[in-house]
Design a protein that fits this description.
The complex is a heterodimer of chains A (about 100) and B (about 230). Chain A is of the alpha+beta class and about 100 residues long. Chain A has one domain (about 1-95): Orthogonal Bundle (Arc Repressor Mutant, subunit A). Helix content of chain A is about 60%, strand content about 20%. Chain A is elongated, with a radius of gyration of 15 Å. The termini of chain A are close together. Chain B has one domain (about 45-225). Helix content of chain B is about 80%, strand content about 0%. Chain B has seven helices and no strands. Chain B has helices spanning about 1-35, 45-70, 85-115, 120-145, 155-170, 175-190, 195-225. In chain B, helix 2 packs antiparallel against helix 7, helix 4 runs antiparallel to helix 5 and helix 5 runs antiparallel to helix 6. The longest helix of chain B has about 35 residues, at about 1-35. Chain B is elongated, with a radius of gyration of 25 Å. Classes of the chains: A alpha+beta (about 100), B mainly alpha (about 230). The interface of A and B includes residues 23, 34 and 95 of A. Chain A: This is Transcriptional regulator. Chain A: Pfam families: HTH_34. Chain A: InterPro entries: WH_DNA-bd_dom (IPR027395). Chain A: It comes from Flavobacterium taihuense.
């Protein structure tokens, strides 16, 4: 039991961060406005959670200009994918125990 | 003793709550993965309507060809310049236009009900991947027409439309994939049976759309309406 709990990643222990990672696992990269729409959160809220995930090195942020508009897009890093995969496996095991 | 029981009760309660939370987490993950990679507002009703338009179109085409047979003297071949040919092309375009308009309207409505925007990254991906084989097939068909290969028009349009569906299915419901495969098979069969172009067209674009459209309608749309 203890081992499984250890695999539950604190970085993903939040609905919005969980959502961001889920989206980035199945999409090569996703821009800020798409993420915002999918998760239904405010700009500030999303920015703080992406920053938290970036600091863990789980996602990478790319900033560029499309015409005159700045465009921020996110993608999951190799490390992030592995960590999230472990997190999901841990969750599944916990549920199976029941 | 009473106090100890009290503590045990709370420990059990809190672990149960955590497990519920994890279960919720898993379903959130699944939901978000699907929603961000697939466009789920595609309306089954649109498929049914497109099928009905196609059948009407095929009937009009059939009548046009029959009338052409009656009036001409021995010259039964429909040429590019003949009115019959132009009318058939016109019918095909009207069917296409009606189908696209109906599909857009119904899908737009369904998206609105589900609180999804119709023009997002998944719908863009869906349309782009649908259009690549479709436009290729369209151009190929026009080139065949120009070179006088009329017999291959029906199989080519069916096969390329089927390929478009298979290609687009990665970004929407699985059912679209099976629709595509069915139409590809029909296209291949009709290559061999070249005399029945119109019948295969009606079967592929008409009947198949109605069957798969109703399947999708009952699987996904009805749930929403009666929710």
């Amino acid at each position: 039991m203890k081992n499984i709990i250890q695999n539950i990643n604190k970085a993903f222990d939040h609905r919005i961060r969980l959502g961001i990672m889920s989206v980035l696992m199945v999409n090569e990269s996703t821009d800020f406005s798409t993420l915002k729409e999918l998760l239904g959160v405010t700009d500030g809220n999303l920015a703080s959670h992406t920053k938290a995930l970036e600091q863990e090195n789980y996602i990478a942020i790319e900033k560029q200009f499309i015409g005159k508009k700045p465009n921020t897009s996110y993608r999951a890093t190799k490390e992030g994918r592995k960590a999230f995969q472990n997190h999901i496996e841990a969750l599944e095991k916990l549920i199976q125990k029941r | 003793m009473f106090f100890l029981n009290f503590i045990i009760y709370f420990v059990i309660q809190s672990t149960l709550c955590m497990e519920d939370k994890y279960l919720q987490d898993i379903s959130d993950i699944k939901n978000m993965m699907n929603r961000s990679s697939q466009f789920i507002s595609l309306s089954g009703l649109a498929g049914i309507m497109a099928g009905i338009y196609a059948l009407i179109g095929a009937y009009i085409g059939h009548e046009l060809i029959r009338n052409n047979y009656d009036t001409t003297n021995y010259n039964n071949i429909i040429t590019l310049e003949s009115t019959t040919f132009k009318l058939i092309v016109l019918t095909a375009f009207v069917v296409l236009l009606l189908s696209i308009t109906t599909a857009s309207l119904l899908t737009f409505n369904k998206a609105k009900r589900e609180g999804e925007t119709i023009w997002n990254s998944t719908s863009k991906r869906l349309i782009i991947n649908f259009m690549i084989p479709l436009v290729t097939g369209g151009i190929f068909g026009l080139l065949l027409l120009r070179n006088g290969n009329y017999g291959l028009i029906a199989p080519v349009t069916l096969i390329f439309y089927g390929l478009s569906c298979v290609n687009a299915s990665k970004y929407t419901f699985r059912d679209v994939r099976y629709l595509g495969i069915t139409i590809i098979i029909l296209g291949l069969i009709s290559t061999e049976l070249s005399g029945y172009a119109l019948e295969f067209w009606a079967l592929g674009f008409g009947i198949c759309h109605i069957i798969y459209g109703s399947m999708m309608y009952f699987k996904y749309d009805r749930k929403l309406i009666f929710r």
